[in-house]
Amino acid sequence: MHAADAIHGDLGMIQPDDFVVAISKSGDTPEIKVLVPLLKRKGVPLAALVSNADSYLAQQATYVLHAPVDREACPHNLAPTTSTTAALALGDALAVCLLESREFTRQDFARLHPGGTLGKQLYLKVGDLSRQNQQPQVLDTAPLKDIILEISGKRLGATAVLTASGQLEGIITDGDLRRMLTTFAGRLEDVRARDILTANPVSVDVDDFAVEALARMQQRNITQLIVTEQERFSGFIHLHDLLREGLV
After folding, report:
1. How far is 151 from 171, CA to CA, in rounded Å?
2. By its UniProt entry, which CDD domains does this protein fall under (predicted)?
3. Following DSSP, what letter does each residue of 179-219 receive, concatenated?
């Protein structure tokens, strides 16, 4: 609330349970001198964030945050520049102190700030993204042709390899196929999924946060992760999913 607007109607926003922090470099502007008595009439506590500790505002306030500035960055030492930066720094310090005193958690932040990338980091789960993708999977007995068709058709660059009972046995990526073709000396018709899979693949749970999936991809330098639910294969999450949500 600007001091000039306050005395022209905006003062109605101030409620009896509010705490007012008035920010002014000089603390002696005409608007401040009109506003302070009105605030006192409302009975609200008043803190002054000022550069001049001897100012009218500082003398009238219950609490004083003194932010002295010897000289402004303005070459003429006129426009508030250094003093505004000092006020911002003290304001941030107050905000952090308030967070700690109220024991404000990441969950509180997500509840009150659901929008934008910051909010998504705190509420978007892996399952919210992986359920939109196809679920490429083959049995461990699948021949090479079926593996290639599954990876190509589902367009995620990989397929999960499952046992006949549905247990996750490993993963095969398109990179695994290329490496196999350069090193395999036998008959390609005899290749089975179990022969070329990577066992114990990196995975995330559907209830993990999406930013955790991003961290694991970056740590391993990979672009997709298997997603599990109750320790069983549930699908895939791809780097493109995270890019689309603005998390990268």
Report:
1. 11
2. CBS_pair_SIS_assoc
3. HHHHH--S-GGG-BHHHH-EES--EEETTSBHHHHHHHHHH
Type of residue numbered 168: L
What distance in Å separates the CA atoms of residue 48 and residue 50, rounded to the nearest whole number? Answer: 6
Neighbouring CB atoms inside 10 A of 238's CB total 20
The residues with which 10 forms a beta bridge, in sequence order, are none
Please count the other Cβ atoms lying within 10 Å of the Cβ belonging to residue 241. Answer: 23
Whole-angstrom Cα distance, residue 21 to residue 81?
20
Structural domains in the chain?
Answer: 3-104 (3.40.50.10490), 123-245 (3.10.580.10)
Q: For residues 120 and 221, which has the higher predicted lDDT (pLDDT)?
A: 221
Strand partners, 64: 48
Please choose, from the candidates 193, 158, 192, the residue with its C-alpha nearest in 3D space to the C-alpha of residue 173. 158
pTM over 0.90: no
pLDDT in tens, 161-212: 999 999 999 999 999 999 988 888 788 989 999 999 999 999 999 999 999 9
Q: What amino acid is encoded at 30 in this protein?
A: P
